[in-house]
TrEMBL record, chains A, B, C:
One of its GO terms (molecular function) is amino acid binding. Keywords: Allosteric enzyme, Pyrimidine biosynthesis, Transferase. Coiled coil: none annotated. It comes from Morus notabilis. InterPro entries: Asp/Orn_carbamoyltranf_P-bd, Asp/Orn_carbamoylTrfase, Asp/Orn_carbamoylTrfase_sf, Asp_carbamoyltransf, Asp_carbamoyltransf_Asp/Orn-bd. The keyword Transferase applies. PANTHER family: ASPARTATE CARBAMOYLTRANSFERASE, ORNITHINE CARBAMOYLTRANSFERASE, MITOCHONDRIAL. This is aspartate carbamoyltransferase. Its EC number is 2.1.3.2. GO terms for biological process: 'de novo' pyrimidine nucleobase biosynthetic process; 'de novo' UMP biosynthetic process; amino acid metabolic process. Residues 245-396 form the Aspartate/ornithine carbamoyltransferase Asp/Orn-binding domain. Pathway: Pyrimidine metabolism; UMP biosynthesis via de novo pathway; (S)-dihydroorotate from bicarbonate: step 2/3. Belongs to the aspartate/ornithine carbamoyltransferase superfamily. ATCase family. Residues 97-238 form the Aspartate/ornithine carbamoyltransferase carbamoyl-P binding domain.
Length: 401, 401, 401
């Protein structure tokens, strides 16, 4: 059935794929968007598989060259020539897009973490730092997020890639007084090789990925997902503690609204003998869906009101910020919640020597500044790990393993 | 006469031209701005010819090297060394700036289109993709236009060039509470090799070009011109239909206010046996100046209220958006105008197999989304062609043919 | 004592310094921030010395390679390999950060100016233009300043470096509703190699430099300092007049509020036989602190109400803008002050042939546009010199002499 459809959508706008050599009309290559669902295609396991593009054999032959897309088992891959390549290139990454934490299983997490660790070793001006040379990443931000944007842009540039920046992506549609996200994506994919999108609406990233012929990375969509944050958190635990099976993690602060801790709990459930402690003011307790999920996965968890006790037992104390904007007029409740569980030197005193304090940042005073000098304060290292995780994902999505 | 003036303006701020080798005063090179009109110089045909810079012979000799400016017949050219150059380099582009559609005649359009087509074939990391390495483009946007800006920045980066971005160029003058555009240009030309400018005032681009010692591209100046859009439209027709002589084009929608359709009509008049149909709600009919111009050029045109009939006869149906902001309080008139001529599957049914639907984007519902899957829906390919046209213009202005 | 502390802070987040080769925990490298004051370390003369980072000998050995940091006399240096290096590389620059004009003495100014002059000669696509390849500069602007930002970004890109841009750095803290500057710096230094910061608060740059493990350049902090402007002014005088000792400079306009003229007066005091004339409306006279300082340094100065007379005697007429915002409701006083000392053709007539007019830009009508064509109008060359000074500082801070 997919083959029957092949005459309908032979190519997309991806660079170098629509390049007829002659000066005649190129409409017969039919660069169009067909709304075949991925389920209809059904020839590949990934949830986020892109539409395969079927090429005439002749075209296909020409494409089997370094720097071009080529077809392997009906799936387009991209081979890239670099001087003295430091990474194996060619085997396709299992994911076409990075949209939500649920896409990742234990094996793929481990494999990504190995690539991230390779990224830590890349030297300036080395061939490794030029593997994405010639690639363009568009940062399509519908709401500003300087921190996340800089991290992605740094990752791309550290690998020799280039960036098209827009922090006012809403202007796309406002100018038009109503352009759809899909139309915007179709335009931007004509100018770039990968899209990093931040949006104010949950589900926007999935919609963009379904439209785009190039990879999409979700850099946060409203109350929805922020998968690269979840990955860097797990990566940091692995790097700091040296293992993920058997760890004890205390999640502290705003557990009701923080998508960070929710995603982290979700990913930790993929490991063995994990124990999770929830420490939060009552008004922002962890919600039942995550608790039920952990139980169903056989993960031990308990709620505690005693941060000292939890800090004494845990490998990781993961602190988060109480978000004032969730309390509306009730500033009294906010102030009460906010002052309840502070990580300070008293907490450090009871924490094991090998344990660490983590925080997704920015922090206010939920971790006191005198904690910063302690080697167990891992939060700035954690921020830096975001760079390596994003370098790894960009490499994998654009070049494969 | 030009020679008499030569002692007055020996050089501009263009990179590499003011580089005395000694540590003594360099004021004797006299880098100043002389308000000789181009007419006074009168030694070159182009309307947008820059001031020639006269160099002492000794200086001139030193400049005859790759990567430097050099004087040819009194006009400065730039030779560029690249490994294995994919383009002929050296012969000066006939234009110094791209300011308005009127600058382009049929021959130069054809030549630009050939370069644009070469651009489609450039591979990542090839020598072709590095021809603008070391060049800096400043995007000086006095009003945001993310779509246009990304397209230009992508074009520059695809050719190995670099970009200085400013979307808040108004801040230049607001900070100063009144710096002139000319002063801003003189500052920015010190930091870059080419300026792409978007302005809210008609004529601003021409003013900038008259001041700048480096090329200026008009990326839209208020209700005035947006010449690269006009070029990409004609280029798209040529690529999609395979010819420009003898084509039939239906211009649909807001013909009174759309600078796009006005420029397109203007450029089509340069070709033979063209027939144009105007299809628009009465309140936004094509204005008489364009109709008169077409008549004077011997181009056949007619107005029609029957989109089905026009679609049946045309090679190109060029749809545009009805702009709500033109209707003020009369939302009823807007709604009526807006719903009148929609391109949908009924239109596709009567369109010839070889014909295409175009649109400058963004679109609302004047083309229904079910049209997108038809191979004749050319509007996203058209957007992509903007990239190739801009790559071509950047190449031509900076390196010549 | 410094050695005793060495076990506490072995490394910072600087790229390539925290790269354990094994997959085990890397917390034992203890990448933390210790609040030892620089005075406590006290092993180096510079006021802005960064914390030295002490490395295990083994690590240190590995780092003695091109492109890596290496330890010399207890101070980390960075060696960089380039093809055919145009600059001597390796000897550490005396400054770790550029925060205020007071950091510079006569010798270091002269040495910086020599590097700036080398920068003028760098050719596109030469090895010289790639010396900062692989380096990332973050422009962290808490208030927009397009002019200054573009100048720094152009400088970085002219040397082959890359840029992370943020003009809305306030968003960092607003998103967090109160992240400290220190935390922001610790995050951004993880993504970049050098930070150029513009801030609305005096002293912010010094605070950032004290936190950062990478160099910080002050691009203006409120009413405080703007040291690169001061440097480019002195550099311009040296380039235009050919000397600094023995020059006569007229400072004109708003001398009370202009940080530019205050810094310039401060730096000129480092040279011999300098004579300074202050010409300003009474309400914005030069303040006593600078006058006292000049007197204490043996620099002659006088106040004058006669611009013609001063212009007749000076090598440099340095005009500045009267800032309306300083006058509040008293627009009458503003208008009076503003019209009092205008540089026009009458001033040019009495100025010596070798003299120049300077202005920090933007200008309004305190210099009439008919002055622009005179070779002695140096203000646009002055703006361009800002590029060379910033290129020199970036080179020196990142690569050393």
């Amino acid at each position: 059935m997919a083959m029957a459809a092949s005459s309908l959508f032979t190519c997309s706008f991806r660079e170098g794929m629509c390049s007829p050599e002659t000066k005649t009309s190129y409409k017969n290559l039919m660069c169009n968007y067909v709304n075949l669902t991925r389920k209809q295609l059904g020839c590949y396991g990934s949830m986020y598989l892109r539409h395969p593009r079927f090429l005439h054999d002749e075209e296909s032959m020409k494409l089997e060259q370094p720097g071009r897309d080529s077809k392997r088992n009906g799936i387009l891959c991209r081979a890239v020539k670099t001087d003295n390549p430091p990474f194996t290139v060619g085997k396709k990454f299992e994911l076409d897009d990075v949209i939500e934490a649920q896409q990742f299983d234990r094996d793929i997490l481990n494999a990504i973490f190995e690539v991230a660790q390779d990224m830590e070793k890349i030297k300036k001006n080395s061939s490794g730092s030029q593997i994405l040379k010639g690639y363009l990443m568009a940062t399509l931000f519908y709401e500003p997020s300087t921190r996340t944007r800089l991290s992605f842009e740094s990752a791309m540039k550290r690998l020799g890639g280039e960036v098209l920046t827009t922090e006012n992506a809403r202007e796309f549609s406002s100018a038009a007084k109503g352009e759809t996200l899909e139309d915007t994506i179709r335009t931007v994919e004509g100018y770039s090789d990968i899209i990093v999108m931040r949006h104010f609406e949950s589900g926007a990233a999935k919609k963009a990925a379904a439209t785009a012929g190039i990879p999409v990375i979700n850099a946060g969509d409203g109350p929805g997902q922020h998968p690269t944050q979840a990955l860097l958190d797990v990566y940091t635990i692995e790097r700091e503690i040296g293992k993920l099976d058997g760890i004890k993690v205390g999640l502290v602060g705003d557990l009701a609204n923080g998508r960070t801790v929710r995603s982290l709990a979700y990913l930790l459930a993929k490991y063995k003998d994990v124990k999770i402690y929830f420490v939060s003011p009552e008004v922002v307790n962890m919600k039942d869906d995550i608790k039920d999920y952990l139980t169903s996965m056989g993960i031990e968890w308990e709620e505690s009101a005693d941060l000292i006790d939890v800090a004494n037992k845990c490998d990781v104390v993961y602190q988060t910020r109480i978000q004032r904007e969730r309390f509306g007029e009730r500033i009294d409740l906010y102030e009460e919640a906010r002052g309840k569980y502070i990580v300070d030197r008293r907490i450090l005193e009871v924490m094991p020597k090998h344990a660490v304090v983590m925080h997704p940042l920015p922090r206010l005073d939920e971790i006191t500044v005198d904690v910063d000098v302690d080697p167990r304060a891992a939060y700035f290292r954690q921020a830096k790990n975001g760079l390596y995780i994003r370098m790894a994902l960009l490499k994998l999505l654009l070049l494969g393993w």
